[in-house]
Amino acid sequence: MLRSFLADRYDDLKQRLSRRLGSAELAGDALQDTYVRLGRAEVAGAVQSPA
Predict the structure, then answer these.
(1) pTM higher than 0.90, yes or no?
(2) CA 28, 38, 16, 10 torsion: positive or negative?
């Protein structure tokens, strides 16, 4: 779910990160790293007790 959000919003996220980081290259690296990490993450189950 998060990976598909990241892929769908890639251009917008990269633009925003580029402004914050001051570098389009760093923004692209950060997004790629995030995408890879999300792919390795275990699937979380339902929240049992949100409070």
Answers:
(1) no
(2) positive
